[in-house]
Amino acid sequence: MKKFTINNLKNFELDHIFECGQCFRWKKQNDGSYIGVIKQGVIKISKDNDCAQICAELSGDIEEICKEYFDLETDYKNIQTILCKDDENMKKAIEYGQGIRILNQDMWEMLISFIISAANNIPRISKTIENISKEYGKKIEFEGNTFYLFPTPEELSKATKEDLRKLNLGFRDKYVFEATQKVVNGEINLDKIEKMPLNDAKKELMKIPGVGAKVADCILLFSMKKKEAFPVDTWIKKVMNELYLDSTNITKINEYASKRFGMYAGIAQQYLFYYKREN
DNA sequence: CTGCAGGCCGGCG
DNA sequence: CGCCGGCCTGCA
Asked: Domain A2-73, what fold?
């Protein structure tokens, strides 16, 4: 068991971070804390005032991992100020979701998770990811409970399409199967994609079956540090059409967001998404 | 019983 | 090219 405390937290609210739709494996506990499974292990985090207590069962340096995962080096206040300028809508959205942070999650896990998210609902997405982890991931004990890491590409490549169908993937089974093959055989190299500029990386990701514009942007934003990526889903389509432009064309919305929100479009997207979905 | 949910794919005009 | 129906499954 490793422990770590984060002091002087600003713009950091557990509910906003974990409920804004970027992650699927964090569960709220009765005492208000959250337990989550990340690449390196299991983490529990609780917070009072501007101080977060973390205990974890994981491999690696807990401080390094937390700094990276919770995006602690980014000044969200500054970004908020930039986004708010001359924008009353954004001001409201930010006020509502001010404690949101973009988590730096695992690329491979995000790839598979967001392929699964297509035309799906959140409870089922979470359950499916849980099923996959239980069946193919490593087991970890934490505070008397059992958790399962998300499987590595090699581990998941043992699953056939039929195996996947049994895990409740539905029609997405073939996408997950083929995506896994491409990663394992090296046809797709996520580390390489991460280093590319946004549009090249997006194009490359969209070569993977089951990955379209929206899924690609989610992977880029939530696991490849591309804060300029702006995933356009049904909610964002609605809210952008209501507040900013008279079009539901995804390409146009992307272009507009890029012009208006620039290098922080992805963070603007999270505030808008969370605000719209919760209100 | 339909309709639909954090899209994507493929076929058609 | 842009548009539109179909797709697993579960829940309203």
From this structure: TATA-Binding Protein (3.30.310)
Alpha helices in chain A, H assignment, sequence order: 14-19, 62-69, 76-84, 88-96, 107-116, 122-136, 153-156, 161-166, 173-184, 190-194, 198-205, 213-223, 234-243, 250-261, 265-278
Q: Between the CA of A16 and the C1' of C12, what is the distance in angstroms? A: 27
By C1' distance from the Cα of A172, the closest nucleotide is C8
Digitized pLDDT (tens) for each residue of chain A, 279 residues in all = 999 999 999 999 999 999 999 999 999 999 999 999 999 999 999 999 999 999 999 999 999 999 999 999 999 999 999 999 999 999 999 999 999 999 999 999 999 999 999 999 999 999 999 999 999 999 999 999 999 999 999 999 999 999 999 999 999 999 999 999 999 999 999 999 999 999 999 999 999 999 999 999 999 999 999 999 999 999 999 999 999 999 889 999 999 999 999 999 999 999 999 999 888
Class of domain A77-95+227-279: mainly alpha
> Between the CA of A142 and the C1' of C7, what is the distance in angstroms?
39
Identify nearest nucleotide to residue A124 by CA to C1′ distance. Answer: C10
Superfamily of chain region A107-223 = Hypothetical protein; domain 2 (1.10.340.30)
Enumerate the nucleotides of strand C whose atoms come under 7 Å of any protein CB: 2-3, 7-11
- pTM given for the model: 0.97
